[in-house]
Amino acid sequence: PVELGDLVLRNRVVMAPMTRSRSLGNVPGENVATYYAQRAEAGLIITEGTSPSPDGLGYPRIPGLFNDAQTAGWRRVTDAVHAAGGRIVVQLMDTGRVGVPQNLPDGARVRGASAIAAPGEMYVDGEGLLPHPVPAVMDEDAIEDAIDAYVRAAQRAVDGAGFDGVELHGANGYLIDQFLNTASNQRTDRWGGSIDGRLRFTLETARRVAAAIGGGRVGLRISPFGVFNGMTPDAEMIPLYQRLAEEAGAIGLAYLHLVDHSSLGAPALPEGLRDDLRARFPGAFILSGGYDRARAEADLAADRGDLVAFGRPFIANPRLVSALAQDRPLAVADQATFYTPGDEGYIDYSDGA
After folding, report:
1. DSSP letters along 175-193, please?
2. Are residues 316 and 349 in contact, defined by beta-carbon separation less than 8 angstroms?
3. Hey, what's the torsion of the CAs at 322, 171, 53, 102, to 10 degrees?
4. Whole-angstrom distance between the N-terminal and C-terminal Cα of the chain?
């Protein structure tokens, strides 16, 4: 068992957030509740990225948490997980410039920190891959609206949907990360330029969400030196994330969740950065990125983190905690069904019992 802010978790295994694109109409259905309940052995489940606003629904079939239908859908999920003895937080992810208008509801728009299109393409049901457009630049009002949307979604998450907390997705090139990174933020106003300017959106969002639901229910996911969705390391990256870790601790956030994508071919974190960020952040520290049983045990024993997040192994191994405890061979997930609609490759994996 381990304490995580206001929560006490029964083990140190975290189910990492993974987009699965099963929420038709952006509302989680019964199969989503089944999927998470099957994996409730995890000490903590972090849901797939869930948009706090219509503008942030850049991918097909991802869920939101900004209307009553979505809140009711998520309530079914949390009730199922809690009935199975689990703990679950929702990852709030605004996709920002990563998206196309065809995936957004009427009236929503693709917007970002600067008028710089994300590289690559986005899938649209019935239309295939379409290029990312140049996003609309967010003015002061749009920035305030986006921060307010995070706060409202966090309140819905706890008060309406029954979540144990929220994780702010500040990694992988989505909206919060877009303000942090100079590849997507070339502003010259108070929301860009200097380290203070580029941190402002992240820290303002974290402060206001923590004030609304309590810092002990809020985590932050970060990916320094990540290159997903067109992010690019710069000369100030290390001091920026050092400041971010310190400020997140001062706000009183429950945890910092560090992403390391080197196992998927991204550049490795600089030597010592992980330990440095852990030392600067007083809350719980979640490690993630290509972990297996042996590496997880070694890093926990060496006190390099408090918890370890597993992603893809949870897809094909719903009872991953039992499998790890018993050192059983793990099933391998079918990548062809990672993002397809329906139950196949989603809730039809054996529990391995």
Report:
1. HHHHHH-TTT----STTSS
2. yes
3. -100
4. 22
Sign of CA dihedral 207, 212, 216, 218: negative
| Cα 262–Cα 267–Cα 271 angle in degrees, nearest 5 | 90
Q: In what helix (H) or strand (E) does residue 300 lie, and over which residues does it extend?
A: helix 293-301
pLDDT tens-place string over residues 227-279: 999 999 999 999 999 999 999 999 999 999 999 988 777 788 998 999 999 99
Residue 184 contacts by C-beta under 8 Å, 6 or more apart in sequence? 96, 97, 112, 113, 114, 116, 118, 173, 177, 178, 230, 231
Contacts of 292 (CB under 8 A, 6+ apart): none
- Measuring CA to CA, which residue among 84, 47, 8 is closest to residue 309? 47
Share of the chain above pLDDT 90, in %: 96
**Identity at 90, one-letter amino acid code:** V
Question: Is this prediction's pTM over 0.85?
Answer: yes
3 state DSSP class of 238: helix
pLDDT in tens, 3-55: 999 999 999 999 999 999 999 999 999 999 999 999 999 999 999 999 999 99
Nearest one of 37, 38, 50 to 78, comparing CA atoms: 37
DSSP symbols for 46-114? EEEEEBSSGGG--STT--B-SSHHHHHHHHHHHHHHHHTT--EEEEE---TTSS-GGGSPTT---EESS
Q: Which H or E run contains 173?
A: none
Q: Is 196 exposed, middle or buried (0-12, 13-18, 19+ CB in 10 A)?
A: exposed
Catalytic residue among 174, 241, 291, 346: 174
174 included as an active-site residue: yes
Strands 121-124 and 44-50: unpaired
